Amino acid sequence: MKKQIGSALPPILAAVLAAGIAGSVSAKGLQPVPKMTDQEMKDAAFIYFDRCSGCHGALRKGATGPNITPEKTRKKTLAKLEKIIYEGTDGGMPGWGKDGFLTKEQTKLMARFVQNDPPEPPQWNLKDMKKSWKVHVPVDKRPTKPPKSNWQNYFGVIQRDAGKVSIVDGDTKKILSTVDSGFAVHILRSSASGRYMYAIGRDGRASMVDLWADPPNLVAEVRIAIDARSLDTSKYKGFEDKYVVAGGYWPPHYAILDGDTLEPLKVVSTIGYTYDTGDFHPEPRVASIVASHTAPEWILNVKETGIVLLVDYSRMDTGTVTETMINAERFLHDGGWDSTKRYFLVAANARDTISVIDTLERKLVKNIVTGTKPHPGRGANWVDPEFGKVWATVHLGEGLVSIISTDPTKDYAWTVVREWKLDGNSLFIKTHPKSKHVYCDNTINKNKSNVLTVFSIDNPTAPPKELTFEKKVVHMEYNKAGDEVWVSLWDKDGELVIIDDKTLKVKHRIKGLDNPTGKFNVYNTMYDIY
Ligand code: HEC
Q1: Ligand 1 pocket mutation pick from 36, 78, 85, 93 by most atoms within 8 angstroms of CB
Q2: 184-to-154, 224, 334, 414 alpha-carbon distances in Å
Q3: Residue 84: count of CB within 10 angstroms of its CB
Q4: What is the pLDDT of residues 467-491, one digit of tens each?
Q5: Quick one: which of 444, 491, 441 has its CA closest to 466?
């Protein structure tokens, strides 16, 4: 697997990439390149992929964090770099030593590593995917009928650090099964029929669970990339459960897989040019993906170039896809549908913007400036008593809920019509069409990480209520009926807490989960209800 980037690329592109990567300039005023053993390079590269590439990019050419290639880092002494890595900065660099993630030794290693040329990240071609592909239960060995249980009210629960996904029955509150998934699973998605639940790990491993089996079991898996975050399935009429698409951070590409078996069928690169300046970018990562219900299409958000791709899969039987490229904004991250599922709202987080895409007219409606680093997850839709249909996001960078009108007939459509204050930064927001409450977590607010803030839809100017838990609380999801809210206590000895949405009282607890984070109700995920 030690293939180098560029080896299978056309010579010109390979030359461009190599020039970009191997930029060890020997100009005056630069620190010498520290010597490192092969083992040290390996250890450092592992830490780098795990902790650093998310912000600085696999090639170190910068993403939400700055470029840290040697021509920049060699302007600083090792001592200075160690200080930045250990202590962090006010400009957004986390303090890896101070926060307990890296030892002094590892900090020193990383300082030397960033003054060396980045090792060339491996490629991951279709044939690599095929080699990693495993079907554990062939299609003809799977049940032909759904179970008698209310399986559309099952929940998939991510146990992030353990690399596992549990299936929990939402009616009986019993854990039905726990399967091995990729490392640090980011999201789960349901097939159009709801029968299959798909997971994608940060290590690029896609896996699928058959919810009709008793107990639900892992039926197939494939590694689509070295580093990945997102996937979805074909949901358009006539294509239900037919295809899966999964997006890579590294390599920057998306893979189209068979929906029943995860057989890799096609891979498409997202390497290209930024939408605004037209600069070549060697690493435009695929952030969130959603499936259209109104066209045979996926909406793929390409982070660094700021382009939203509408990928038409209707001719995939001949191996053909059609891409519509919509200029949006750079650093696209997560997003979700408005209540009509015509408009897709996606955060360009490092630009403090929400981009609105009209999937019917196939164009950008507007870039809306919100607060610092919007992070909607999929966002939350409700009907505001004064402004009508709205969608909202919380922020990674400030304690703010930005509420945006999604009613195109209003003159204030696609503007922030209302703001709610939180006491600090937040990860997720959630409500349900049947609910009168909007929940925000405070997971990344050090002073309140064990508190949920609950706003009233009917009384939007009233001070919010607070629900306090004994541990850090993250991510909310409703049951199928929309009358319970499930939250995770994020801890080695973690649990799910189920809240009665009407009374805000704890109804039930499910213990014995290792670092539970995101959870996805089958019915709500099938129909994109949020
Ligand atoms: C959450 C995003 C994020 C992550 C993850 C991250 N960084 Fe940074 N890093 C930044 C930002 C933002 C800056 C710029 C800070 C500033 O200007 O104050 C930065 C700055 C730096 C700098 C100084 C660059 C310069 O030329 O001044 C170095 C070196 C660096 N990071 C190394 C690392 C290493 C090594 C890791 C992994 C252990 C890492 N970073 C992980 C966001 C991140």
Answers
A1: 93
A2: 21, 15, 17, 34
A3: 19
A4: 999 999 999 999 999 999 999 999 9
A5: 441
